[in-house]
Amino acid sequence: MHSIKAMRATRHFLPEPIPRTTIAEIVDTARWTGSARNRQPWRFIAVNTETLRIQLSKLGHYAGHLAEAPLVLVLLSADNGFTDTEFDMGRVCQSLCLTAHEYGLGTCVTTIHPGDNVVRAAALLDIEPGWLPRHAIAIGRRDPQRHRSPSAIPTGRLPGPTLLTWA
Ligand SMILES: Cc1cc2nc3c(=O)[nH]c(=O)nc-3n(C[C@H](O)[C@H](O)[C@H](O)COP(=O)(O)O)c2cc1C
Question: Which atom of ligand 1 lies closest to the CA of 155?
Fold first, then answer.
């Protein structure tokens, strides 16, 4: 509960590599996320190669931070036509971000779009047919000097009473 309140999007990172074992442990935790019919319609590609991260950073309108993050975890969703799939992807994405937060790492969920860029990302990462790279998570240690830099995106949240009604 407290992790959710403390975890804010991180878009500026220290240039510290993230050990492969840490990423493997984060995925090992998140893979226990429940999904509709237990389909687990997700796969993950960990990208630490700088040239690939730079190319991915150009495949979204607000994806520039993927170039700076030491690790980009690309989320592949199954192109299976089930309406639950993107719901499942949101759940596993949150599990990954919260687990990374427990490891002291900052994250920023990032959208790869429009559709042409999803196709480009699939080609770039040589993804097999049937899997769509629609989102990626930038992961790394937050740069405390820059994490408050201005952003076009509003901060804060709607108040509880606006969100919750009783019937
Ligand atoms: C599905 C989804 C897509 C997102 N796409 C982007 C994105 O493309 N670029 C970006 O900078 N942040 C992206 N974000 C991060 C949101 O902007 C962020 O979660 C929101 O502004 C709240 O930030 P805060 O927790 O720091 O207040 C995305 C978040 C979600 C859940």
Answer: 27
Pairwise CA distance, residues 134 & 54, whole Å: 17
Per-residue pLDDT of the chain (167 residues; tens, 9 = 90+): 688 999 999 999 999 999 999 999 999 999 999 999 999 999 999 999 999 999 999 999 999 999 999 999 999 999 999 999 999 999 999 999 999 999 999 999 999 999 999 999 999 999 999 999 999 999 999 999 987 666 677 889 999 999 999 99
Q: Which CATH number fits domain 2-145: 3.60.140.10, 3.40.109.10, 3.50.50.60, 3.40.710.10?
A: 3.40.109.10
Determine which residue's CA is closest to atom 18 belonging to ligand 1. 9
pTM of structure: 0.97
Strand residues in the chain grouped as ranges (E): 42-47, 71-78, 106-111, 131-140
In the reported structure, the alpha carbon of residue 57 is separated from the centroid of ligand 1 by a whole-number distance in angstroms of: 15
